Amino acid sequence: MKISEIIYRDEYIFSCVEENVEIDKITTRPSEADEKTLVIIPNSKNISEADFEENMPAAVICDTDANIPAGIPTIRVENPRRALSYAYHRFEEIDLKDIILIGVTGTNGKTTTTTFIKKILEHSGYKVGFIGTGKIEIANECISVSDYSMTTPDPSLLYPTLKKMALSGCNAIVMEVSSHSLALEKVAPLKFDYGIFTNLSREHTDFHKDIEDYFLAKSKLFSQCKKSFFNVDDDYARLAYKECQSKKVSVGAIWDADICGRNIENLGLCGSKFTYHWDNYSCKIRLNVAGIYNVYNSMLASAVCIDIGCKPRDVKEALAEITSLPGRFEIIKDEITVIIDYAHTENAFYNIMKELNSLKGSNRLSVVFGCGGERDKSKRPRMAQIAEKFADEITVTQDNSRKENPKDIICDIIRGFDRKSYYVCEDRAEAIERAIIEAKRGDIVAVIGKGAEKYNIDKNGYQEFDEKKIIATALEKRKARRK
Fold it and tell me: Which of the residues 35, 39, 101, 216 has the least number of beta carbons within 10 Å of its own beta carbon?
């Protein structure tokens, strides 16, 4: 492909590259370059002349500050990250005109909402491509690697994946769209048929300067959507709804909305049921997944799928068939109840702890949790305060410490406690086992933070770590001790 087909004249500030130069590969790493490679430098701070000593690329796209050696054909642009996304989009010759593209953003509920949409569409006969946190699927076949952990892939993976989905015959693609991906222009070339805003609360302050910056990043999605759906019971989603200039639909259970949830009944660990109203039509919905907040996720998913053309009967049947979501309020029943959940934001942690506290009855609620390394440090003591508010037994452990010292993270967490009745165990597997073995019959043990992840990230990178296996082993040990 000619470089003139990858970047257009009106997209660069300066170029000394011949427009007919042939490109057969794109990369962000100069070490991978050869004479037919286009190197795109997203961040000029991470590059030096030494990076090009061994390899001569066909061309380099970078910003005006990048230090590129003389003699290398260079195109200077204002926004290299945007250029990177468009380059991959054009290089892969992405054509989604016959495919329904759905993007879901928000602090919490993205994975659950995208999963609901996927299940409804499949029940209605669609072949669905799914791009979610830690998993990429085509018609239920996982095509991502075991240690894939992103919410929205980098362009080098995203656009080849979209092309693969198109070539495999998908007629719908549903994807989670993170604030990082929007701020870093990963999805800039995409035109979404539908966008969804679930909610927004304080998160990612390690990346965004404040919650307003975080909100503005999320809101970018809806300038790329033909039609958007907003949970207007959430303050920030309601603000985004008001500011949205394209077709929009409000969804809620408290505020007046185009689509309303009424007669909501929390069935505890058995799920919930409610009446879904839109226009002059109403439909009774039964959810068999726990978490009253899933009413919102299911309403948003249902609204989009009905707008696409799915029959309300199929929506109702598909939702009723979902009995669990891996790592999202996942229930393991024994003589105690173990809950696995991905909640790692302050708001999500609060919601699930409040819910579990209301369900424990006369029994006790035990929680095992930690906080991720190299992420927002300010939430760590607040997570402790939430645990203290709702749990009877608290175990603080590690959770994807990355290159940060797990002990430092744990110290940050325990600063939030007022009481002294908590237990610290850096080894997460040991912490889970102890909480399960010491629980009394009928108690609830919540293992929070990792969800369906099959790994733990420490200073040495990704390590195999399967919480469901650890929990199963702990339950067996518990039974053996009881005997």
Answer: 35
| Enclosing H/E stretch for 406 | helix 406-414
Alpha-carbon distance 118 to 112, whole Å? 10
Instruction: Fill in the amino acid letter for 332.
Output: I
Please state, in angstroms and rounded to a whole number, the distance separating the CA atoms of residues 295 and 292.
6
Determine the length of the chain: 483
Which token pair is 113? 């909402």
Tell me the pLDDT tens digit for each residue of 188-203: 999 999 999 999 987 7
In the block, tokens 């989604």 appear at 96
pLDDT at 28: 95
Q: Both tokens of residue 13?
A: 């500030």
Mean pLDDT, residues 409-413: 97
Report pLDDT digits (tens) over 422-465.
Answer: 999 999 999 999 999 999 999 999 999 999 999 999 999 999 99
Closest CA to 360 of 464, 442, 472, 254: 442
Phi, psi (deg, nearest 5) at residue 13? -85, -40
24 is written with which tokens? 């057969």
Residue with tokens 């230090």: 67
Contact assessment for residue 88 and residue 82, using Cβ atoms and an 8 Å cutoff:
no
Pairing assessment for the beta strands 128-132 and 135-138 based on DSSP bridges: antiparallel
In Å, how far are 199, 339, 356, 373, 412 from 394, measured between CA atoms?
Answer: 28, 14, 14, 20, 15
